Amino acid sequence: MKSKPNEFAVHRDWEWNYPVMSHAEGVYLYDTEGKKYIDGSGGSSVVVSIGHGVKEIPQAMFEQAQKFSFYPAHMFSNEKALELAEMMSGHAPLGMKNNIKTWFCCTGTDATDDACRLAKQYFTEKGQGTKHIVVTRWQAFHGNSLSAAGYSGHTFRRRIFQGMFADSPHIPPAYCYRCPFDAIYPKCGLKCAKALENMICQYGPENVAAFIAEPVVGAALGAVPAPEGYFTEIRRICDKYDVLFIDDEVMTGWGRTGKMFGIEHYGVTPDIIACAKGMSSGYSPLAAVMAKKEIWAPLEKNNSAFRAGHTLNANAVSCASGIAVINYLLKNKLTEKAAEMGGYFLDKMTKELLPLKNVGDVRGKGLMVGFEIVKDKITKEPFPAKEKVSKKIQDLAFKKGLIIYQCGGSVNGVGGDMILMAPPLVINKEQINEIVKILKETINECV
Ligand SMILES: Cc1ncc(COP(=O)(O)O)c(C=O)c1O
Fold first, then answer.
1. Which terminal CB of the chain, N or C, has fewer other CB atoms within 10 Å?
2. pLDDT, tens digit, 9 for 90 and up, residues 264-278
């Protein structure tokens, strides 16, 4: 006999009547009752890049699993991890291309946590052990462990654990629609980036190891790209104070924004990249820390083991899925497709949704787009948080057969309703039209 969701297995929401998923193909998912859903959010939170049900991927995983899946990583290497790491080096962005080494882990949270560890250890090995602080931003999300809560700026996910994590200094986000400095780009002179310099000086550069940021803010802001010039300024400040720039590409990496990595839109080379989600397109748990060779060099020189690691890291079946996913992405030119379809999607949202009386902003890059719901378009006043408007929109869209990802907290970390859209990169124009049609109906019925 089948048990009901939440009877034995705990799901996040206690009230939601979870359908049970049966199978998925392309941009569609089906439940066990036979209902069809269109995937507007990459499976869940910007994960599925190459589409659902691509046969090559389980085939590659199966072939590896027949040989072995788990391996004693303290004694052996595995061919799939070696092949994947070499492949990733060739696709690394800008000044990292063919100049990185990759560390494999399981989730995006592991990747950002390990990236922060690497920054700290890098300085320790160089005799600069006081450098330990990771500066971060409000309205940012970097993972869901207690350590990540400290360097994330997502109020809802941090608040009840406050006191349990080591907090990081936060600078305001690069968020033109609700500029934290009440300024207008480009006259603002990028005060949001300059805030990093102030923060580093306040804490003392001798204490600051890294700055972490997403090129396009996902879960915390609903697809907000940084303004042009922002990351150039960040890079300048990091270089000036010997601070590493950690680029969190967990959502934006591997084609999502129309470039292989989101940071490529800004022409800036990071020191370390954390990636996950799209690199295995959700076919298996896989994440990675890609870092310039010179970042690993002091550890190597001192023969000092990297102080990180989880039992299931660099799992051979997961690495096999990563190789197959990246090959599929390249073979089908899905990064280019994300740029083209993303442009169409943003355009369509601008034409169809922005004129609605409660849609205050639409934004995004490639196939990572979003919009913001407001009570008053002129003043940008949000709906009261307790009305849970974005959740209502998400739930009604789901009933209509569309999966979307709701976000909150653009205003003081508490108010503000946003919807993040990130369909698989194989989506076509008709399917985008279908999504926008449902979104429009849903918004009109909810607000
Ligand atoms: C930018 C960013 N970093 C890190 C994470 C954490 O990834 P995971 O959920 O795989 O631990 C997420 C998850 O949404 C994310 O969006």
1. N
2. 999 999 999 999 999
